[in-house]
Amino acid sequence: METLDMSVQFAPTKSSDKVSLHICRQIVRGAMNAGDILPTEQELVTEFNVSKLVVRESLKALSSLGLVKIQQGKRTIVQAKMEWDILDPMLQNALELEGLSAPLTAQLQELRLILESASATKAAERASQLQIETLLNIVADLKEIAAVSRDRDDFLSSHKKFHDSIAQASGNEPLRQVLRNVHQYLHRDWDDNTLTKDEMALSAEMHGEIADAIFHSDGARAAEAIARHIPLAEAKNAKRLRKPAVR
Q1: Distances (CA, A) of 164 to 84, 161, 182, 186, 197
Q2: Angle at alpha carbon of residue 91, lines to 71 and 52, rounded to 5°
Q3: What is the pTM assigned to this prediction?
Q4: Count of Cβ atoms closer than 10 Å to residue 99 Cβ
Q5: Where are the alpha helices (DSSP H) in 102-218?
Q6: What domains appear along the chain, each with residue ranges and CATH number?
Q7: Is the dihedral angle over the CA atoms 118, 124, 128, 129 positive or is it negative?
Q8: Residue range 53-96, pLDDT digits in tens
Q9: 3-class SS at 53?
């Protein structure tokens, strides 16, 4: 009987999610390749010591991620990598647990820069007075935290709120939702030693430059300020690229 790995960051609680993550990890590490046939439902029931309903829920979840294709009257097969929903948290976590997240991290950092630049440009064009005031107030909070309390959690919370507020001001909700997913993946490994006093102060100043450009409706300058800020912020996630697989 297969032993399910419970020590995962995705922390699934449902039995079906645990089975899904286990199979997902097998697929991303190449234990099963595109076109390979999955075991039958009964074989999976026996392998994982779960009910047939749990197995069906697991396969349905994997199908929704593009990892497998359920064929009526035929066996379920593994799909090609190009079909995978790479923005799904379970798939992202499986790659990380297998020590295969470096390419995804680099691509998401690149995507973040592209989307954040576009978001800031649109925010400079479309932001309401209230949205601009919100950005300026968050910058004030960042500067105060950097100068006084230096509380890392408060700083990162305001940092997240700032970037989400820009996405809101862009007036493009799908863009905002994609950025939320990207931020969640890239930032979840920040630890207590990530931000020094000087790094907080520099980050707060950079956020001020972005907000000022949006305040003056200068999309080009807002995008340039974002382009200076993001590479420094993402350098804090470099340790992700060196993470070994968790077995």
Answers
A1: 26, 5, 12, 15, 24
A2: 45
A3: 0.81
A4: 14
A5: 102-126, 129-144, 152-169, 173-187, 197-215
A6: 15-90 (1.10.10.10), 101-242 (1.20.120.530)
A7: positive
A8: 999 999 999 999 999 999 988 999 999 999 999 999 999 999 99
A9: helix
